[in-house]
Request: fold
Amino acid sequence: MVLSASQVKAWERDGFLVVPNAIKPAHCDRLMARAQGIVEDFDPSTVSVFSTHEQTRASDAYFLASGDAISCFFEEDAFAPDGTLRQDKSLSINKIGHALHDLDPTFDEFSRQPVIAEAAASIGIADPKLLQSMYIFKSPRIGGEVTCHQDSTFLFTDPMTVVGFWIALQDATVENGCLWAQPGGHRTPLRKRFVLDPVGGTRFEILDDTPWPEPGATDLIPLEVRKGTMVLLHGLLPHWSDVNRSERSRHSYTVHVIDGTAEYPPENWLQRKADLPFRGFARLATLGS
Reply:
């Protein structure tokens, strides 16, 4: 998956790139099955709700420890007023994060496919390091909105180098909560940073008051893609996804990559213990067909 000159040009122009048929459907199915196994083994008494609205993003101890763990987070609407789950546990999880790519063999192999490594090299990442991974469920009727944001808010490097490699494990449509992106929006400034607060927890550090593109406005376009599509997302690109009120899930997987030549600040929320450093693509996967 060495990107063509026209693909690189589109990436530089738009701040995102859609690559159809990048991942084999069988590999998507294998990842979905493994994610289901993780959820089945998850003890739901460990309750951490992942807020999909930035202004109320969770910063509890469970969340902050997930940078070097495999952690499950519930949807905001998963629980009834009495604290019980409204539906089956498998349909109540928002995401699994954030070190799947290093701690689980199936996710490790998937994340280090040559298709991802070669795409990273094609856009000029000199020393790619896999920083964070997320499995997103967007379950039917309950999959939450992710408000418009820039990934560099949460995964900052100096200079800014983060790129998201988002994989559609199922077809993504407007009806089931596909991504929306602002073409050229990566040329707008970083609005805020999500950092560790010296007194405990986290806080947003406001950097710029440039308004976000409004959901549904003409400056955001839907990225409706088929299963197996890979979407590259620049760290400064404003992007958004709507709620899923349809009857179909929209599973996806994202691995965020940074350039190891850049500085990774100690105030970033995601930190690793010394025995689990960020790794790159040295051990490339050779997935079967």
